[in-house]
Design brief:
By secondary structure, this protein is α/β, with parallel strands linked by helices. It has 7 helices and 7 strands, in the order E-H-E-E-H-E-H-E-H-H-E-H-H-E. The protein has one domain: Rossmann fold (3-Layer(aba) Sandwich), CATH 3.40.50.
Amino acid sequence: MIIITGVSKGIGRFLYEKFSQFDEEVIGIYNTTIPKYDNSKNLYKLDISNYNEVENFYKTVEKKISNVKLINAAGTNYSAFAHKSDIEQWKKVIEVNLFGTFYMTKHFLNIMRFENYGRIINFSSVVAQKGIPGTSAYAASKSALWGMSKSIAEENASKGITINTLNLGYFNIGMINEVSNEVQNIIKKQIPVGNDFGDPINIYNAVKFIFDSPYLTGTSINIIGGLF
């Protein structure tokens, strides 16, 4: 069973639609925006930054899930120079991107450890590697995933559970649509592979590769078109 957070839009939606084409059951999680799919029986509203909500959700699905592959695709952003930032909005980015990912991971590790099988994929970003002005909250939340993922991977490696992080560059999907065309053109010129944003099929292919690779754990994989 595949469980994907953040299926309302962006990468989460893309992966939900791709994996729903096959026989394996897929559960999609959303929060503020209700996704519109033909088949919505496996969609759940959940604020992953709320520990009690995550715990209750896990108890709801625990008895009907097995062979879990958890894709933590939910995320949010807040852009502001540090000295001008609103502390509550800054904190919310950490609560969703980092705490929310941990809450989901913590709970679903229970069934994974019982079954001696599991796949967990987290999403970081090239933004955390480059040092881009105005992105301190987002960069902090995404870089924290590296250490967290490696630590939890070590804890669970002997239980048939892999935990890996995909570091994403700029893709024709998701948060890039919040950026002005002028800035988008500047970014494109910096990307060595084709001077263009990536096709999200690359993300899907990487996720499938991780699913099928039991010897791959505790790693961070760059999918950034050569951008450093």
